[in-house]
Amino acid sequence: MSADNAADGGKKDLAALARGGRINFFGFVLRLLARIPFLFIAGQFYGAEALGRFAYALIVVEFSAQIATLGLKRGLAQQLSASKGKDHTHIVWDGMVVAMLGSLLIMAVLFLFPQMMFPNSEVRGLERLLPITVLALAWTEVALAACNYRHNIAATVRSRAIVEPWTISIVAGVWAFISTDDGLIVAYVASMVGALLAALWPFIKDYGLPHHWKPHYAELWGMARRNLPVAAADATEWASRRLDILVLGLFFTPAIVGIYWAAQQVASLPSKLKTSFDPIMGPVISQNVEAGNMGAVAQQVRQVGFWIIAAQAGVALALGIPAMAVMNLVGEEFGAGYIILAVLLAAEVIAAMAAVSEAALIYLARHRNMIIGFIMLALEAAIGAGAIIVLRNMGYPVEVQAAGAAIGLAAALGFAAIAKAWLLSGIVNASVSGWRWPLVWAGIATIPLGLMIGRIPDWAQLTIGAPAILLVFGIVVWRWGFGPEDRELFKMKKERPGAATPGDDLSN
Asked: DSSP secondary-structure letter at 430?
């Protein structure tokens, strides 16, 4: 962080966070608009069983991509901040080589043993192409991480919020008239390749092609080894949102898994609000850590934590109160999963503080953060399986029993939120909690409205009720939860003289 930025209490960093969050919030809205048609197409044309099979294949591929990136999604910012004069172009291309080598190894295994992706059914049609997405995913993550370090947030919006979701929706819709056997997989491959191309263009514009560079394999191995704790943190964060699917597979048919996955896709939308800040939080926090400014780190985590909790709580209420109407939109057989959706939405709000704290812990206490992640996964599996068994013994319908996996997720995320915030608070010697009591008053204010919209048709609940809930919640939080500093930061439209610009190294 620069001297003048330190002198103003870190307001320029917070302005950068707010500015990046605003840009990516636009991306969140675009992604929401694109996700709705995909879920509708998948539910209406492919059905719950096909969705369940699709969900299992994605678990294998996306986990493989997490391993292949070796923590560079978030670790690259620290590599660049601590570069000490080394050419940034060489560093980012070293990262691309690391991701490529990891991806090629994993892709070879999946091409040879495709049953790893489809353990309970035969491989159909073009589904053998699915391993291609491992390299596409890994390279996209590294390329966007490099762009984010230069504060090029628009690159993430174009790749993740426009090209990726709209491609999967369009291809899934077209392929439904060709083959419903492999249509979802083909659409997914197309969307990942499209997202990669959309990420590589700004990446090359920002950094260019490397000149007078060749991969240094000893340094590459050192980079991979240093990033292992970050890779483990990324893997546990990813696994926490997939382990419930694996637990479900032990107890239920693919159709129930498909209903749960559809609810999970809707519930994951509020979590995208957190990722609105990821591209800018990594570079800002890593630069303050490098400068030893722990007070600024605490301030940033506390401030962004409040923004994310408020935004996620509002969206969760807007989607959770008319949960049955939301699930009916996917398809008639999905409506029974409304309880699953409500629990998953609550879990995402609970997870907000853990996710924001982790943005700093991966630089300050990566090994302890990794251990907390492993404990969280163990709790999720144990509590999820236990809740399913209890609900089954009590004689509840299978859709309610499946909510046991979501209960396990919520409980595990609650543990992680408390543990990670407590750990970070001790390290920076300051409070990092983003909680403010007006969030409760805002939630209570939506109750009368929620009772009223339960009596109107599904279409009205979604088009009138959900926006009204979000509006009421937002008004209360803005009036009684936001302080002058919050409002001022979100009013900033232009850089003030001397403010950091994209590409500045704030650690100087």
From this structure: S
Q: Tokens 């853990």 label which residue?
A: 354
Residue that wins the pLDDT comparison between 314 and 153: 314
Q: What is the model's pTM?
A: 0.71
Residues 160-175 pLDDT 10s? 878 888 899 899 889 8
Strands (E) located in 379-491: none
Contact 315, 270 (CB under 8 A): yes
Q: What is the pLDDT of residue 182?
A: 76
CA distances 195 to 28, 135, 156, 470, Å, are 15, 12, 9, 30
- Measure the CA dihedral 77/359/264/128, to 10°: 30
Check if the beta carbon of residue 198 is closer than 8 Å to that of residue 163: yes
Q: Which amino acid is at 109?
A: V
What lies within 8 Å, CB to CB, of 29 at 6+ separation is: none
Q: How far is CA 243 from CA 55, 236, 383, 437, in A?
A: 12, 10, 12, 32
* DSSP category for residue 252: S
Residue position matching structure tokens 């719950």: 48
Radius of gyration of the chain (CA): 22
Report the candidate in 252, 237, 273 with the shortest Cα–Cα distance to residue 373. Answer: 237
Per-residue pLDDT band for 473 (boundaries 50, 70, 90) equals: very high
d(CA 275, CA 202): 19
- Residue 121 is given by DSSP the state S
Name the range with the highest mean pLDDT among 217-221, 287-291, 491-495: 287-291
Query: Phi and psi of 214, rounded to 5°?
Result: -145, 145
Instruction: Copy the structure tokens of residue 114.
Output: 């495709």
